UniProtKB/TrEMBL annotation:
Lineage: superkingdom: Archaea
Species lineage: Archaea, Methanobacteriati, Methanobacteriota, Stenosarchaea group, Halobacteria
Organism: Salinigranum rubrum
Name of the protein: Uncharacterized protein
Length: 115
């Protein structure tokens, strides 16, 4: 029988670690607004993903670029950086809202050492 995370004994709490992750696209949007750019490594770190998800993140960023959320930055082939695209620029939050984004990021949670 599977129990919700809140009812799992503390010694088994690591089984619920997926709750400390977020979709790559959410992390990418947050970083795009906070930094002005994103790349695969920064999204993996921001989303608190486990190692080995880089290819998936790269696919997500490419799709976001295709849809106008991101755009390839200068020297993209060297850096792999995407910049804020036209769709995100049109919907940019206020500067105060951008500051709140960083305080609510999952990247502040500590990942278990056995990942």
């Amino acid at each position: 029988m599977t129990r919700p995370c809140g009812s799992v004994p503390s010694r088994l709490h690591l089984m619920c670690r997926e709750l400390n992750r977020e979709p790559a696209w959410v992390a990418a949007i947050r970083l795009a607004y906070l930094r002005g750019w994103v790349d695969v490594d920064s999204v993996v770190e921001e989303a608190n993903l486990i190692s080995g998800r880089e290819r998936t993140v790269a696919d997500v960023l490419t799709t976001m670029c295709d849809r106008g959320l991101l755009r390839e930055g200068p020297r993209f082939d060297e850096t792999g950086r995407y910049l804020v695209g036209p769709s995100l620029q049109q919907r940019a939050p206020s500067p105060a809202a951008v500051k709140r984004l960083s305080r609510h990021g999952l990247h502040q949670w500590v990942r278990p050492a056995d990942d």
